[in-house]
Design goal:
Layout (H helix, E strand, L loop, with lengths): L12 E6 L5 E6 L3 E8 L4 E8 H10 L1 H10 L5
Antiparallel strand pairs: 1-2, 3-4
Helix pairs in contact: 1-2
Family: Belongs to the bacterial ribosomal protein bL28 family.
Keywords: Ribonucleoprotein, Ribosomal protein
InterPro entries: Ribosomal_bL28, Ribosomal_bL28/bL31-like_sf, Ribosomal_bL28_bact-type, Ribosomal_bL28_sf
Length: 78
């Protein structure tokens, strides 16, 4: 599965690992993706989302109903 947050759309970043000898090799910085299950009163059911840690904080701040409405407005399936 891809490391993409359904709330914020956060994707992996890319860069280099730098060793002690300063040799650079490519690496990938993945967001902290969690599978989280929420009760959505407006839909009357549970929804499982793949969200980053920052996405969880966004849901806590805005509320699950608002966030789910934004996801559905983008045309994403829940």
């Amino acid at each position: 599965m891809s490391a993409v947050c359904q709330v914020l759309g956060t994707t992996p970043g890319f860069g280099h690992s730098i060793s002690h000898s300063h040799v650079r090799t490519k690496r990938r910085f993945d967001p902290n993706i969690q599978k989280k299950r929420y009760w959505v009163p407006s839909l009357g059911r549970h929804v499982t989302l793949r969200v980053s840690a920052r996405g969880i904080k966004t849901i806590d701040r805005k509320g699950i109903d608002v966030v789910v409405a934004e996801i559905l407005a983008r045309g994403e399936k829940l």
